[in-house]
Amino acid sequence: MNQRMAWPDIARGISIVGVVILHVGLVVPFGWETNIALANEYLIPLRMPIFFMVSGFFSAKILQYRFAELVTRRLWFLLVPYLFWTPFELWFKSLERWYGNGSPMPGRDFYYNNVLLGGSMYWFLHALILFNLILWASQFLAEWLRYVLVLAIIVCAPVIVPVVSEYTGLTFLGKYSIYVPVFLLGAYFKPMIIWFADRALSPGALVFTLLSFLTARDITSWVWPQIHDIRFDILQRCLSALLHLPLAITLAVYVSRLPIVSQFLQKIGQNTLGIYIGHQLVVTATFGFFILHRDQEISWDATSMLYRPTFWVISCIILGLGGGYLFGKLATVPVIGWTLHPPAINRLTSSETSQQLTEASYRLKQT
Predict the structure, then answer these.
(1) Which H/E stretch holds residue 29?
(2) For residues 247 and 212, is the Cβ–Cβ distance under 8 A?
(3) C-alpha dist (Å) from residue 83 to 29, 79, 112, 126, 340
(4) First and final CA of the chain: distance in angstroms?
(5) Among 196, 310, 170, which residue's Cα sits nearest to residue 249?
(6) Confidence bin at 3 (pLDDT 50/70/90)
(7) Residue 17 · residue 265 · CB < 8 Å
(8) How many CB atoms lie under 10 A from the CB of residue 39?
(9) In this structure, are residues 25 and 34 in contact, taking their beta carbons and an 8 Å threshold?
(10) Which segments cross the bilayer (predicted)?
(11) How many Cα atoms within 13 Å fall on the side-chain side of residue 291?
(12) Which pLDDT score is estimated for 248?
């Protein structure tokens, strides 16, 4: 990727670093009270919207895919890591809780339900599978109808989703309906996003970004509290996600001009899958099993720095990012690496392969 287009990977890098800090803050006792966790809260409106927008941005090409190509060139690389690592992460975390406080290990239904409904740390893979299917299906719509689809999701989701979720148990619909418009617009408006990113630091673009941010802030802090209707929570959060996108893009473009920081975040952004899957496993395997459940509690009153929240938040962030990055290198290891980056199967749908299979089938019938 050339320098001009470094910002998408940097945006994903910012997002994944924020996610790691969030998860560490929830795992370490009083971790959410540390200055690092409090500073990370400023990324909350940007973190997931920019991740899904960039994911849509890179998925625009599937609008030209046949269904077989969608499965073999896109969904295959999401399904394999999701189906392998989700049950393992659920089991590993349950094992830590059993080890630490004697919590019973869950039954088989626990794993089935959470894998099927995206109820795990790896819900973003579950979401991307569904979002890619929706994006691919939208290729059969006229271009203007695609924009109507996005608008319909934004407007109708607050009314439909709560009812459907209640009667079907599809609890993920509320969260997904917030981010699927962002994902779709990332694909549909890819040329416009590139155009904006090229001018993101110009005076006019900065004014637009500021106005968009202030509008999002007013919706979140003033308009929404006046409504007092839970049905509009989805609408408020979706609008907030969309309105924060200019700021997220501008931040990524600005960071791309900072030599050392940009290189670090770009490297992180190019290894998102390994870090996202691996960081929680590494933190559980180290801090979870060996520190969290010891007799000496982690608290602000601890006399030793080794048992204060800030020390372990910093340590777990380093463990999560470093261990997660190394975890991603498993993709280069035969067999086990296939669970992160499975071997390509797109040749199965190529015209040459199809012809060979047809000829083989014909010869088989002749014998």
Answers:
(1) none
(2) yes
(3) 30, 6, 10, 9, 10
(4) 52
(5) 196
(6) very low
(7) yes
(8) 10
(9) yes
(10) 12-32, 44-63, 75-92, 112-137, 144-164, 176-197, 243-261, 273-291, 311-328
(11) 21
(12) 97
